[in-house]
Amino acid sequence: MTAPAHPSTAPLAPEAPLPVRDKLAALRVFHTGPGKVAAAAGPVALLTFTPRWLIPRYAMVCSPRGARDVLGRTDGAFDKQHIVHRQSQAFGRNVFNLPHEPWLGRRRLLQPLFTRRHVAEYAGHMSTSAARLADDWIARGTVDLDEQTRRLTLQVIGRSVFGLDLGERADELGPPVKLVLQWLTGRSRRPVRAPGWLPTPARHRMRTSLGQIRAVIDEAIDAARMDPGRDAGLVTLLLAADDPETGVRLTDEQIRDELFVFLIAGRDTTSTTLAFSLWSLGRDPVLQERVAQEVSGLGPRALTVDDLPKLAFTARVIHEALRLCPPAPIIVRSAMQDATVDGVRIPAGTQVIVGAYAMHHDPSLWSEPELFDPDRFAGYRPVGDDRWRFLPFGAGPRSCIGDHFAMLETTLGLATIIGRTRVESLDADFPIGLPFTLTAGGPVPARITSRS
Ligand code: HEM
């Protein structure tokens, strides 16, 4: 896309007319914060603090045009230099956190591994795992959808990405993954912190967790290298991948860093989407019946990637879950130069927050935004600015590389579970928690019965 009007001709974005306390709260409560700033100051607003040398200036962007002007830039004008990206480099430099220049080649190398065709090759494990889990739920009677979908997605990532049957170890990996995410959230929400060399208990716990995760990753790389012919998932493709322009391959350390981010970026996001979808259907028997009927039309067998075109309503349920409960409620960048965003100027050095959750809940962009209505996505083919109002996977050059993988997993997972079970949500609210990605903040209890 072309760059918007030159920033020197645009007026400076307005400062949000809010007390410091409310500005800080808007930064800490990732999902609803940007919407509150937009209500007070309009779709693009600055949050300036003193002292300026200690706390950077922020901008909140909550309009589709604003999102386009930030996320659509292909020249690195809004780069991944935000504190969250720098902090996450403690876990390695990967396609998620690399700045623009080194990112270009890395994404070029990885992109072919995430096309629909490739994903279909290594990501077919969802139905089997989901069917096993659903039968276990029926035996239990009552389950916590949050805990259970986290287990499921870790199992599936274990098989599809690492080529490992994690079995019981999937449960063991849950706590270290959670701790690493919590550490990252804590660091990015606190502008003032202990110096890097200080051995705090939190750092010690984080390093231990990191070691546990890395041990599994190393095991996956070794196993794939020893037996390249086996069904070893994405890791096998990573070992063989090269940059289509330069022919350069990834080093073992780079492969390890990429696998790490696939685990961190792909686990809680997909599990929350599944948990929220199941909870929503568990509150609405009519919608749930429509999913069940769609699945029963396919016959009593394990679902495969070829069934996706026939699971259109199930996919709409997933989209609606991603709208109401986007696992990435905000998308953050740093302005590397002065830039025009939705007609106003954002100065270089500003930390920019695009409010995806705020736009997904904006009544001027969606009718009855709080209503769970999957049919709003029937025939949804957004064009022009409209396509920037729905950002579950981000947008522009740095949009989610795992979007096909995530849609495949969640659609097959939801269809398989609803095809076998009736879900009745026992709580009227879905508890929102915020450890980095938007996840459930507590148990999501549901009563499960068999459909057969
Ligand atoms: C429902 C599931 C998922 C959601 C909602 C989601 C959401 C997102 C979003 C919003 C971004 C853009 C972040 C930004 O612009 O700063 C992103 C980037 C990314 N996601 Fe996902 N994601 C999901 C699943 C996955 C999976 C399964 C994987 C890997 C297997 C993955 C890997 C990544 C990576 C590597 C990036 C960085 C891409 C880049 O900067 O080039 N995600 N994701």
TrEMBL record:
Keyword line: Heme, Iron, Metal-binding, Monooxygenase, Oxidoreductase
Signal peptide: none
Highest taxon above the source species: Bacteria
Pfam family name, one: p450
Record has Oxidoreductase as a keyword: yes
The keyword Ribonucleoprotein appears for this protein: no
Cofactor: heme
Binding site for heme: C400
UniProt xrefs under Gene3D superfamilies: Cytochrome P450
InterPro entries assigned to the protein according to its UniProt record, in alphabetical order: Cyt_P450, Cyt_P450_CS, Cyt_P450_E_grp-I, Cyt_P450_sf, Cytochrome_P450_Monoox
A GO molecular-function annotation: heme binding
Assigned protein family: Belongs to the cytochrome P450 family.
Protein name: Cytochrome P450
Species per Swiss-Prot/TrEMBL record: Nakamurella multipartita (strain ATCC 700099 / DSM 44233 / CIP 104796 / JCM 9543 / NBRC 105858 / Y-104) (Microsphaera multipartita)
